[in-house]
Design goal:
This protein is α+β, with helices and mostly antiparallel strands. The chain is built from 4 helices and 14 strands.
């Protein structure tokens, strides 16, 4: 499938400000960037640095008065991907070293507090007698059925525990709960920022990504997007690592728009 991405953001800066930008499509084997264009308003400084786990790039900017960014990309996604529900969990002692950090707790994902809940609600997940993918599928379906998608019900301080109690949130919160419960089941999980078809309202989208069968697989607990219709921007331990824009001084949004369509 070929996807067209268009994103534009504009922010007023109250003073000269350092900014971290991450909104370009990642150049990784499972997706091919056929064409792209990035336009940024005048800046004092710009430097590209590798993003988390070398997936995608971040851009350091130093700007005054205004940040205005326009980005377009045409991307080809692999049409055939395995069903994650049929894949097996790897025993911990066989996990690649780079996945271990995604078993551990992070700022927004206090997974150790959910071990008893996961075991009682979804059953034990042991390699050899149950597919890890089946466990992840149960977790995904539970979140999808129990939670209400509601804008304005969470903010930058909301953790997976907060969302679990409230049973509501936006894509970021759904992803945090999915990742937290999956880690509690002993399966590496991380958060991914994506462009995706079917997201309403259309915006930068956050989903979970789980390590099963020796590879990473995107899982959207909101139910709005399918793996074969998502274009990955970046990944991280939680939302703190995948923000499309981080500002190190106060800024004011003027405009923000994302459009994703079939090419």
């Amino acid at each position: 499938m070929n996807i067209q991405v268009e994103a534009s953001i504009a922010y007023k800066l109250q003073q000269p400000t350092d900014l971290m930008l991450q909104l370009e499509v990642a150049k990784i084997p499972e997706q091919t960037v056929m064409a792209e264009n990035l336009a940024i308003s005048p800046y004092e400084h710009m430097t590209r640095v590798p993003a988390h786990d070398m997936i995608g790039e971040r851009i350091w900017l130093h700007c005054e008065e205004l940040l205005d960014v326009r980005y377009t990309a045409s991307v080809a996604i692999a049409d055939s991907l395995p069903d994650y529900r049929m894949l097996e969990k790897l025993p911990m002692h066989l996990l690649p070293g780079e996945t271990v950090q995604y078993l551990n707790e992070s700022r927004y994902c206090p997974s150790q507090q959910f071990t008893n809940f996961v075991n009682s609600e979804f059953g034990q997940c042991r390699s050899g007698d149950d597919h890890g993918g089946q466990m992840v599928g149960k977790i995904r379906d539970w979140i999808h059925d129990k939670f209400t998608y509601a804008s304005g019900t969470s903010d930058a301080s909301t953790t997976a525990l907060d969302s679990f109690v409230e049973r509501q949130g936006v894509c970021r919160d759904y992803a945090h709960v999915l990742v937290t419960l999956t880690r509690a089941a002993g399966i590496p999980a991380r958060v991914a920022s994506v462009y995706a078809l079917g997201v309403e309202p259309q915006d930068f989208h956050a989903v979970g990504e789980v390590f099963l069968g020796g590879g990473w697989h995107l899982v959207d607990a909101t139910g709005m997007a399918k793996e074969v219709e998502m274009v990955k921007i970046g990944i991280g331990r939680d939302a703190a690592d995948i923000s499309f824009l981080t500002a190190y001084n106060p800024i004011e949004m003027i405009h923000q728009k994302v459009e994703v369509s079939v090419l």
